[in-house]
Amino acid sequence: MGAPTVTEVAAGVHFVEGDAVNWVVLTDGDALTLIDAGYPADVDAVRQSLDLIGCRPDQIAAVLITHGHVDHIGSLPALLNGSTPVYLSQPEVRHVHGEYREQATPIDVVRNLHRPGYLGWSLYLARSGALKHVTLPAAAPFPSDGPLNVPGRPIPVPTPGHTSGHTCYLLPDAGVILTGDTLVTGHPTSRIEGPQLLAPIFHHDRQRTVEALDTLEALDADIVLPGHGPVYRGSIREAAAQARERAA
Ligand SMILES: [Zn+2]
């Protein structure tokens, strides 16, 4: 796996681009919040990203997750010491506890191998640990409504669709929205760049994902940090409109 790229998009908001998936580090003094965590094989890249920011894993005060897919939670079992709180929405807690599963299977990917990008993508998945079923038995629902009392004070924004408990995170002071896999700006299986939805096979409920764009569109933010693809600098209103148009 290659070295991650870290960009401080606003004070204390560090956007990390791994090989195929992104994560975000919010710093506040000595403490930090990690939002999403890459594939199982990204564990060294996550450590490296903290190092580039000047932090250590033991400074992680809390982990937040957009959704329980293996490319967003994969490194956590190896990264965390067990006492770090991991928070998600209530339905997504059940997902990462392994009570149900909403993820494209290897068979779904094989069925799409004739499409551009999918062969290289499937080989990448095998290397990245994507075939592991990662669960987080200690993950818990958000402890409160509104801004979370963790470094960066992100506000969870429920955006069910991609998974039933998918959550975006708003940082109102920084004007930043983390869109997870509700809205992305690129993906190895996509040939376009810019705000878009992931391919249909990746969504548990694509129609609800499109509806979740309405929620994003109503927010006030002008830096968009997606789960996949580069940062989008422009209003989330515009980004959501573009994604909706391309999805139609
Ligand atoms: Zn996903």
TrEMBL record:
Provide the Metallo-beta-lactamase domain boundaries.
20-228
InterPro entries, per the entry: Metallo-B-lactamas, NDM-1-like, RibonucZ/Hydroxyglut_hydro
SUPFAM superfamilies per the UniProt record, alphabetical: Metallo-hydrolase/oxidoreductase
Protein name in UniProt: Glyoxylase, beta-lactamase superfamily II
What is the species listed in this Swiss-Prot or TrEMBL entry?
Cryptosporangium aurantiacum
Q: What is the lineage of its organism?
A: Bacteria, Bacillati, Actinomycetota, Actinomycetes, Cryptosporangiales
